[in-house]
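Both lines are given unchanged directly below:

***
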Amino acid sequence: MKKSAGILLFKKLKSEIYFFIAHPGGPFWKNKDVGSWSIPKGEFTDEEEPLQAAIREFQEETGIFLEGEFVELNPVRLKSGKKIFAWALEKDADETSIVSNEFPLEWPPKSGKFITIPEIDKCGWFKEDEAKEKLNVAQSDFIDQMIKKLS
Protein backbone atom coordinates (compact mmCIF):
# COMPACT_ATOMS: atom_id res chain seq x y z
CA MET A 1 0.00 0.00 0.00
CA LYS A 2 1.36 3.40 -0.96
CA LYS A 3 1.30 6.05 1.74
CA SER A 4 2.08 9.73 1.98
CA ALA A 5 2.47 12.20 4.81
CA GLY A 6 1.80 15.91 4.75
CA ILE A 7 1.15 19.10 6.66
CA LEU A 8 -1.92 21.33 6.58
CA LEU A 9 -0.98 24.83 7.69
CA PHE A 10 -3.71 27.09 9.00
CA LYS A 11 -3.91 30.62 10.30
CA LYS A 12 -6.57 32.75 11.94
CA LEU A 13 -7.22 36.28 10.71
CA LYS A 14 -9.86 38.05 12.77
CA SER A 15 -12.67 35.46 12.93
CA GLU A 16 -11.68 33.63 9.73
CA ILE A 17 -9.57 30.49 9.36
CA TYR A 18 -7.37 30.12 6.28
CA PHE A 19 -5.70 26.94 4.99
CA PHE A 20 -2.44 26.68 3.02
CA ILE A 21 -2.66 24.26 0.10
CA ALA A 22 -0.56 23.48 -2.96
CA HIS A 23 -1.19 23.12 -6.69
CA PRO A 24 0.84 20.40 -8.47
CA GLY A 25 3.30 21.49 -11.14
CA GLY A 26 3.64 20.30 -14.73
CA PRO A 27 1.69 20.30 -17.96
CA PHE A 28 -0.93 17.74 -16.85
CA TRP A 29 -2.11 20.00 -13.99
CA LYS A 30 -1.56 23.36 -15.75
CA ASN A 31 -5.23 24.14 -16.44
CA LYS A 32 -6.79 22.09 -13.64
CA ASP A 33 -8.03 23.82 -10.49
CA VAL A 34 -11.09 22.47 -8.67
CA GLY A 35 -10.32 19.14 -7.01
CA SER A 36 -6.65 19.11 -8.01
CA TRP A 37 -4.92 20.91 -5.12
CA SER A 38 -3.33 19.06 -2.20
CA ILE A 39 -1.72 19.56 1.16
CA PRO A 40 2.08 19.58 0.67
CA LYS A 41 2.89 15.88 1.09
CA GLY A 42 4.89 12.98 -0.22
CA GLU A 43 5.53 9.27 0.02
CA PHE A 44 7.59 7.69 2.76
CA THR A 45 8.93 4.26 3.68
CA ASP A 46 8.31 2.06 6.71
CA GLU A 47 11.70 3.12 8.08
CA GLU A 48 10.65 6.77 8.37
CA GLU A 49 8.36 8.23 11.03
CA PRO A 50 5.26 9.68 9.30
CA LEU A 51 5.47 13.09 11.03
CA GLN A 52 9.17 13.44 10.15
CA ALA A 53 8.31 12.50 6.55
CA ALA A 54 5.55 15.12 6.51
CA ILE A 55 7.94 17.84 7.74
CA ARG A 56 10.60 16.77 5.20
CA GLU A 57 8.12 16.70 2.32
CA PHE A 58 6.69 20.11 3.25
CA GLN A 59 10.19 21.58 3.16
CA GLU A 60 11.08 19.85 -0.15
CA GLU A 61 7.90 21.11 -1.81
CA THR A 62 7.80 24.65 -0.40
CA GLY A 63 11.28 25.50 0.87
CA ILE A 64 9.76 26.19 4.31
CA PHE A 65 11.05 24.41 7.42
CA LEU A 66 8.37 23.78 10.04
CA GLU A 67 8.47 23.22 13.75
CA GLY A 68 5.89 23.68 16.47
CA GLU A 69 2.84 22.03 18.02
CA PHE A 70 1.62 19.64 15.32
CA VAL A 71 -1.96 18.39 15.57
CA GLU A 72 -2.42 14.83 14.29
CA LEU A 73 -5.37 14.35 11.94
CA ASN A 74 -7.09 11.09 11.03
CA PRO A 75 -5.66 9.58 7.82
CA VAL A 76 -7.70 9.56 4.62
CA ARG A 77 -7.63 7.14 1.70
CA LEU A 78 -7.56 8.34 -1.91
CA LYS A 79 -9.50 6.63 -4.71
CA SER A 80 -6.17 5.11 -5.79
CA GLY A 81 -5.98 3.35 -2.41
CA LYS A 82 -3.07 5.50 -1.18
CA LYS A 83 -3.32 6.38 2.52
CA ILE A 84 -2.54 9.99 3.47
CA PHE A 85 -1.32 10.79 6.99
CA ALA A 86 -1.55 14.45 7.98
CA TRP A 87 -0.80 16.92 10.73
CA ALA A 88 -1.97 20.48 11.06
CA LEU A 89 0.09 23.40 12.30
CA GLU A 90 -0.92 26.97 13.02
CA LYS A 91 1.69 29.08 11.21
CA ASP A 92 1.84 31.84 8.64
CA ALA A 93 3.82 31.32 5.45
CA ASP A 94 4.46 33.47 2.38
CA GLU A 95 2.74 31.68 -0.48
CA THR A 96 4.50 33.89 -3.04
CA SER A 97 8.01 32.76 -2.11
CA ILE A 98 7.77 28.96 -2.22
CA VAL A 99 10.67 27.06 -3.77
CA SER A 100 9.73 23.54 -4.81
CA ASN A 101 12.01 20.65 -5.65
CA GLU A 102 11.92 19.55 -9.29
CA PHE A 103 11.86 16.24 -11.11
CA PRO A 104 12.20 15.01 -14.71
CA LEU A 105 8.95 14.14 -16.53
CA GLU A 106 8.59 12.48 -19.91
CA TRP A 107 6.51 14.96 -21.94
CA PRO A 108 4.66 14.41 -24.11
CA PRO A 109 4.08 10.89 -22.73
CA LYS A 110 6.01 8.12 -24.54
CA SER A 111 7.94 10.74 -26.57
CA GLY A 112 11.35 10.00 -25.10
CA LYS A 113 11.69 13.72 -24.34
CA PHE A 114 12.03 14.93 -20.74
CA ILE A 115 11.26 18.25 -19.14
CA THR A 116 12.04 19.33 -15.58
CA ILE A 117 9.04 20.46 -13.56
CA PRO A 118 8.44 21.61 -9.99
CA GLU A 119 6.45 19.28 -7.72
CA ILE A 120 4.27 22.27 -6.90
CA ASP A 121 3.89 25.38 -9.00
CA LYS A 122 1.99 27.53 -6.50
CA CYS A 123 0.49 27.61 -3.03
CA GLY A 124 -2.31 29.70 -1.62
CA TRP A 125 -4.29 30.56 1.48
CA PHE A 126 -8.01 29.81 1.25
CA LYS A 127 -11.01 29.99 3.54
CA GLU A 128 -12.75 26.72 4.44
CA ASP A 129 -15.23 26.47 1.55
CA GLU A 130 -12.78 27.44 -1.19
CA ALA A 131 -10.04 25.19 0.24
CA LYS A 132 -12.45 22.22 0.29
CA GLU A 133 -13.49 22.94 -3.30
CA LYS A 134 -9.90 23.12 -4.56
CA LEU A 135 -8.58 20.11 -2.62
CA ASN A 136 -8.66 16.53 -3.80
CA VAL A 137 -12.06 15.27 -2.53
CA ALA A 138 -10.61 12.84 0.03
CA GLN A 139 -8.21 15.46 1.42
CA SER A 140 -11.01 17.97 2.03
CA ASP A 141 -11.76 15.83 5.09
CA PHE A 142 -8.60 17.31 6.68
CA ILE A 143 -10.30 20.73 6.57
CA ASP A 144 -13.44 19.32 8.22
CA GLN A 145 -11.33 17.70 10.95
CA MET A 146 -9.53 20.98 11.71
CA ILE A 147 -12.73 23.01 11.77
CA LYS A 148 -14.14 20.57 14.35
CA LYS A 149 -10.96 20.72 16.44
CA LEU A 150 -10.96 24.54 16.37
CA SER A 151 -14.63 24.99 17.31
The beta strands are 3-13, 16-24, 41-43, 71-77, 83-90, 102-106, 114-118, 120-127. The radius of gyration is 15 Å.
